[in-house]
Amino acid sequence: MGVYLLNKEEITFPNPLLAEPDGLLAVGGDLSVERLLLAYAHGIFPWYNPDEEILWWCPKERFVIFPNEIHVSKSMKKYFKKHKISLAINRDFMDTVRRCRAKREDKEGTWISDEIEDAYYELFKKGFALSIEAFEDGELAGGFYGVAIGKCFFGESMFSDKANGSKTALIAFSEYVKDRGILFIDCQFRTDHLATMGGRYISWEEYDEMLGIGTGRGRMGMGDVEHEDP
């Protein structure tokens, strides 16, 4: 099928169904707020190495966590009983992003470049990105950040400053949002860590239907994805 080259002057995407088997859909474009919102509302997200062209992905099988299906292991239940846990949303968005970046730079490397930081900060300022942090007995344990559109949350990256820090944040966030109408937490790709917490694959058809409802865009047609001015 081939990978599509995006025009920076035109905010459009090819139909997500045209993505390669590994999920790669397009290359190029930019990280403007307008383009990012269009992308996420159709199941597309950027993921690429710093200093390379922007790559846009749309895996057909989506790995998600439904808030009411979050799995809390016996050891985590004991942990929650032992410690006082509190949840902070948007305490310091950029601090959360940079903690996620630093944890990966020190290990396997990171896709969170200066360009990514700037782009998601713009989303945050427009009200479309959140940072979530968990505190253990008053001390920062871990957290994550992601994109929030309507009733959908798209996780981007996590960090832990204490053992179980990111798990604690994800469990606390799931408990917080499950009665607030959030349909799913999109994990994008599977990891063993997320699988143990209740993450599972769903079909593109199920994902796209929920995405249409949750973002308010309706179910996607078969044409290209285009931006329309309100």
TL;DR?
The chain is an alpha+beta fold and 230 residues long. 31% of the residues lie in helices and 27% in strands.
Radius of gyration, CA atoms, in whole angstroms: 17 Å
Give the helix/strand class.
Answer: alpha+beta
Distance between the termini: 32 Å
- Classified in CATH, the superfamily of the largest domain is Leucyl/phenylalanyl-tRNA-protein transferase, C-terminal domain
Report the average pLDDT across residues.
90
Query: What is the chain-wise order of helices and strands?
Result: EEEHEEEHEHHEEEHEHEHE
State the helix count. 7
Residues in β-strands, percent: 25-35%
CATH architecture of the largest domain: 3-Layer(aba) Sandwich
CATH topology of the largest domain: Aminopeptidase
Taken together, the total number of domains comes to 2
Low-confidence stretches: 219-230
The neighbouring-strand order within the major sheet is: 7-8-9-10-11-6-12
